[in-house]
Amino acid sequence: MKQMRLHQEGHHIIVTVFLLLVILNALVYRFFPCVVSSAILGIVSLSFFLLIVNFFRCPKRPIITDVSNKIFAPADGRVVVIEETVEQEYFKEKRLMISIFMSITNVHANWYPCEGEVTYVEHKNGKYLKAFLPKASTDNERALIAVRTPSGVEILAKQIAGAVARRVVTYAEKGEPAHVNEQLGFIKFGSRVDVYLPLSAKPTVKIGDLTTGSQTIIAELIQTEKES
Questions:
Q1: CB 166 within 8 Å of CB 188
Q2: Side by side, which strands form the sheet with 202-203?
Q3: pLDDT tens digits, 133-161
Q4: Residue 207 φ then ψ, to 5°
Q5: Measured between alpha carbons, how far is residue 225 from residues 4, 60, 144, 207 in Å?
Q6: For residue 169, what are the β-bridge partners?
Q7: Residue 188 neighbours by CB under 8 Å, 6+ apart
């Protein structure tokens, strides 16, 4: 049986929502003492509270040890894009991009996609377009985290806020070690994470595949003569 816990990002929100719902139900029952309406409000409130709790769940996952030349999913969700594109903010050159979209029902913690050292971290303010739109990658609020693998290859993960997600939280700091079993951040209430890889990388997933953060291998690094 999987061990489940609540993510630290949700503690304050869960307590606040619980208190507000209790107060709301008490006020409604006090001034509109109708059993039916109170029962309906109670059911709706409980359902909403459980949805919030479910959103901030954070399951414990097996530690992955065979990580050499492998790129892991940084998030739970669905693969929505696999394409070669020009990464305009950090590499400023053509890269292989794999995008994972997180719905509101997914776990929203984000993990490092590979082992190595964090070489770059930057948070950028922006809009809140729908996360599946191409422009979201450069126009929305986002955080860029680059990791250099032990073989010297740099991988970029980009946390992107969406129309519902209004806050990107990043734990990664430049100069610290990166491990696939450790979280680099959290995105509240749904969005997506883009991973930018060398063009020589070999995807091991296809569009539509479901991913599990820190567990699903999404690509393998193929060392070329130019990169070695």
A1: yes
A2: 70-72, 217-220, 202-203
A3: 655 566 678 999 999 999 999 999 999 98
A4: -60, 130
A5: 44, 39, 27, 29
A6: 186
A7: 9, 108, 165, 166, 167, 169
Q: Are 221 and 69 in contact (CB under 8 A)?
A: yes
Other Cβ atoms within 10 Å of 74 Cβ, number: 31
Catalytic site positions = 191
Tokens of residue 24, six digits: 């709301």
> Would you say residue 17 has pLDDT above 60?
yes
DSSP symbols for 118-136: EEEEEEE--B---TTSTTH
Which residues make beta-bridge pairs with 185?
110, 170
| CA distances for 110 relative to 21, 137, 142, 143, 225, angstroms | 29, 16, 13, 12, 32
The pLDDT-based confidence of 228 (bands split at 50, 70, 90) is very low
Question: Quick one: tokens of 20?
Answer: 């507000």
Residue 201: its H or E element: none
What pTM, to 2 d.p., does this model score? 0.78
List % helix, strand, coil for the chain (3-state, nearest 5): 20, 35, 45
Q: Can you tell me which residue has the tokens 């209004």?
A: 166
Joined together, the tokens standing for residue 113 give 């996609």
DSSP tag of 27: H
* Coil, strand or helix at 1: coil
- Nearest-5° angle of CA 96, CA 102, CA 107? 120
Q: What is the CA radius of gyration of the chain?
A: 20
